Amino acid sequence: QSVLTQPPSASGTPGQRVIISCSGGNSNIGSNYVYWYQQLPGMAPKLLIYRNNHRPSGVPDRFSASKSGTSASLAISGLRSEDEADYYCAAWDDSLSGPWVFGGGTKLTVL
Amino acid sequence: QVQLPESGPGLLKPSETLSLTCTVSPASINNYYWTWIRQPPGKGLEWIGYIYDSGSTNYNPSLKSRITISADPSKNQLSLNLTSVTAADTAVYYCARGGGRAYSPPDFWGQGTLVSVSS
User: What is the pLDDT of residues B22-54, one digit of tens each?
Assistant: First the structure.
């Protein structure tokens, strides 16, 4: 049982916009930054979004994210086949659960 | 770009001790936090713990009694020991840079090494 809650799956067709949600609590998302990781099949997770809504160098601006209260979301616009991956949200947790807690992951399928 | 290849035994029997190493290049391990994370097959990510500057550590409370994370600056190497393993410890184990502060997440990750526990 993951501390952060994500939908197990999402899907879209090429060119569409997809949103993946992440829900937490006051001790994690509510009081700390949210991060998003992309895990391509058979690969290690890659940092996709840091400090709620910033993209590391090299991450396309098709990826965006936001946070409100104890929830966050990742949006992928102009969906491409290479976006098919697992996406994880993460946050620092100030309680005994942490410090790092993750969502269970959302498998994105590009139809 | 930092490289973090992990190495380990691959297969263990229940009750044995898991020992993994992560050799960092080209950056020095000094003055950074280094984090271990694992991922059971087909499942999500679990934070194991971190070490800072070859010294201070912080461990997942659920694993704390069985974990030791250490560092060898002379080899630029990180190590993870997990005692009394069970099938529940079967996972891909990753080392990653960062993760010691809320504003500094694990950013660069190794490719991971699969550890299976089976009798």
Answer: 999 888 888 899 999 999 999 999 999 999 976
> Tokens 């898991």 label which residue?
B18
| Cα distance between residue B48 and residue B6, in whole Å | 15
Taking 90 as the threshold, does the pLDDT of residue A96 lie above it? no
- Residue located via tokens 């959302």: A106
**CB < 8 Å to A45, chain B:** 45, 94, 109
Residues 6+ apart with CB under 8 A from A2: A101, A102, A103, A104, B44
Burial class (CB in 10 A: 0-12, 13-18, 19+), A26: exposed
C-alpha to C-alpha distance for A83 and B57, rounded to whole angstroms:
36
Closest CA to A12 of A70, A74, A67, A59: A74
- Is A50 in contact with B45 (Cβ distance < 8 A)? no
CA angle B37, B43, B48 (to 5 degrees): 20
Q: Chain B residue with minimal CA distance to A96?
A: B61
Mutation target vs A (from B6, B33, B47, B113; most A CBs, 10 A cutoff): B47
3-state secondary structure at position B31: coil
Per-chain mean pLDDT for chain B: 93
Q: If residue A106 lies in a helix (H) or strand (E), which one and from where to where?
A: strand A106-110
Judging contacts by C-beta atoms under 8 Å, the chain A residues touching residue B46 are: 102
